[in-house]
Design a protein that fits this description.
Layout: H1 3-20, E1 33-38, E2 46-49, E3 55-58, E4 62-65, H2 71-83, E5 92-98, E6 102-106, E7 112-114, H3 122-128, E8 136-144, E9 154-156, E10 167-172
Parallel strand pairs: 6-10
Antiparallel strand pairs: 1-2, 1-5, 3-4, 6-7, 8-9, 8-10
Length: about 180
């Protein structure tokens, strides 16, 4: 097998391992604040927010759609736009400065929206919401991923990862 074929096989295995482990690739949406760095172009770099329409307005190239894209996909999109008559070999790097909030509803003491923190689980979300109420059914917690509809809600455990924009609902128990 040639070196290119071995490298391709390696990436396929890594990609499949990420899917098998339940790894979810973060998708950008309105409310995310980004740090965009264009290598050796200070005037094109800076902090930008994804607007309510899901776009990022950048110097020279204007509005670039970010909604639903991964960070890597947005980097490639910006590079492609910069190649179109502006820069010869643009290198773009993006990091998320502030994630959009997540929401916790139902039988927690203080339901509402809370700032997202990397590595957050359902149990962390409940703790931010002030803990369970006495009526909470700790074994009936549902989660709706950002951008999904109510019909796609998932039954989850306390260890399930929460992502920005997710809605966590702790159901009521019936005596």
């Amino acid at each position: 097998m040639g070196a290119l074929a071995q490298l391709l096989s390696f990436f396929i295995v890594i990609f499949a391992a990420g899917i098998a482990s339940g790894e979810v690739i973060y998708k950008l949406d309105s409310g995310d604040k980004l740090k965009v760095i264009v290598y050796e172009e200070k005037d094109l770099s800076g902090s930008f927010e994804v607007s309510g329409e899901g776009v990022v307005s950048l110097p020279l190239i204007g509005a670039v759609s970010a909604k639903g894209l991964s960070i890597r996909e947005l980097e490639k999109s910006i590079e492609t736009n910069l190649l179109d008559g502006y820069l010869k070999n643009p290198k773009v790097s993006i990091e998320v400065l502030n994630y959009r909030p997540f929401y916790i509803l139902g039988e927690v003491k203080e339901p509402g929206s809370y700032p997202y923190v990397n590595g957050m689980t359902v149990l962390n979300a409940v703790a931010l919401g002030g803990g369970y109420t006495y009526r909470a059914n700790k074994s009936r917690i549902t989660l709706i991923r950002a951008g999904e509809s109510e019909k796609n809600k998932l039954s989850v455990s306390a260890e399930t990862r929460v992502l920005p924009g997710d809605v966590v609902r702790v159901e009521e128990r019936f005596f």
